[in-house]
Amino acid sequence: MLSVLIWFPCIAALIIALLPQSIAVHKVRQASLFLSGATVLLTLGVVSKFDLSSSTLQFQESLHWLTDLGLDYQLGVDGLSLPLLVLNSLLAWIAIYSSRVETKRPRLFYALILLINGGVAGAFLAQNLLLFFLFYEVELIPFYLLISIWGAAKQGSAATKFLLYTATSGGLILAGFLGLIWFSDASSFSYEIVREQTLPLNIQYVLLILLLLGFGIKTPLVPLHTWLPDTYVAASTPVAILLGGVLAKLGTYGIFRFCMPLFPEAWSALSPILATWAIVSVLYGALAAIAQKDIKRMVAYSSVGHMGYILLGAAAQTQLSVVGAISQMFAHGLILALLFHLVGLIETKVGTRDLEVLNGLMNPVRGLPLISALLVLAGMASAGIPGLVGFIAEFLVFQGSYTAFPIQTLLSVVGTGLTAVYFVILLNRTCFGRLDSSRAYYPKVEWNERIPALILTLLIIVLGLQPAWLVRWSEPTTTALVAAAPLSPQRSQAWVMKVEPDPIPFSVSTLTSPSL
């Protein structure tokens, strides 16, 4: 079942790329939507058969490949990778749907998106370090082409910067993986074999720092984020959705999958530094977003800040904080995809992203009232307003991290307040005020253009009102992950969530600590 999630999109990409030139552009788009939708259904098929009570890998597949090199085809899925698999398939479909019908070179465009979908799925499912690295690198060239060919102004320099940073990220990760084998008795790059090895603490420090830098570039975290603003702004709307919603999650996934379990002592020792690094990213991202005049660049910087919450949850290493961080990965993907889609619609209809020019879009007659209303909701979700999916993720991170790192957690709450500030600035200048009389009417937003936004909005609201539908998938895995970690001084007094034999809907009453 897992191989299908990887190779079906890749075969679909080949089919789309080889379609005859005589086929109309809209037919190519429809075929791509159908194939991407089939991938979503296949992913949901795995979800329907997933055992919620198990913390171990499920649907495992193993095939000997280059055994002499320690590279075997090993796949598996657990509560850490399953939500990200769903996010990957969903946002690939959203990206294709968000593309313009008149997209140039459509066969190559849609084939690259489908190829990215398969490659990212392979990275989330790989249970061999070298196999993960191969899938991790597969997306490099497709994204480079998507940015450089279909991007906006300065797409060439932005694509080159992305290529250089991503290549450096892959090199650091490969060096860390090779070091794991060289300094241990592992006979292969199998994740389970490597995880059983014990390394001296000084070696753990070196290898952990290599991997943190590699995954920190991809996430990205300050100061490794400098490729992100230019790349996100230059990318088209569908590509920006994939960059922020999917690609960045490869970095945070790598932190949880490889950094925490493979270097437990070094991770616990460095956790105060990592928590401080997280807060620097949170505050810097929020302050940088406040200073922007381009709404797309503002959303890009907001992504830097929200990635810091995930690192804070990982650093605290309590069950609540880890569950919250995994939930934040999924929630952030939905919210950022909605924001980029809405910003793309505004740019298409109004012709600008400049906050000094935009105003009055909430006007019910001459503006974009529905798009403006959804933008307000997306800003509220990003700011962690209760009732939306962003709230429960941030709440769990804060409650799980407070006892371990009270100062950093309080500063992260300040970051949430700053998030509200820059979204108030965005919404006040974009949606409200008097509509410029020189721009009498904007082109109407068609219903087919609204569908991606409405789907994402529905998920943000439903999962915000029923957070158990999100949290329950990763709870057994995080229980095992935290239980295997050495108890650091910061964690010794941290709150933990009760482990029930049968997962139940989440509520504050499931916590052993007093409710906040």
Strand content: under 5%
Radius of gyration, taken over Cα atoms and rounded to an integer in Å: 22 Å
Question: Which structural category do the helix and sheet elements fall into?
Answer: mainly alpha
Low-confidence stretches: 494-516
Q: State the end-to-end CA separation.
A: 42 Å
Element order: H for helix, E for strand: HHEEHHHHHHHHHHHHHHHHHH
Total beta-strand segments: 2
The largest sheet is: 2 strands, antiparallel
User: Per the principal axes of the C-alpha atoms, what is the gross shape?
Assistant: globular
Label this structure with key terms:
disordered C terminus, 516 residues, 3% strand, two-stranded antiparallel sheet, 20 helices, 67% helix, globular
Summarize the structure in words.
With 516 residues, the protein is mainly α. It contains 20 helices and two strands.
Summarize the structure.
With 516 residues, the protein is mainly alpha-helical.
Protein topology:
Layout: H1 2-17, H2 25-48, E1 58-66, E2 71-77, H3 82-98, H4 106-125, H5 129-138, H6 140-150, H7 155-182, H8 191-195, H9 201-218, H10 228-234, H11 237-262, H12 264-290, H13 295-316, H14 319-350, H15 369-382, H16 389-402, H17 406-430, H18 447-465, H19 468-471, H20 475-483
Antiparallel strand pairs: 1-2
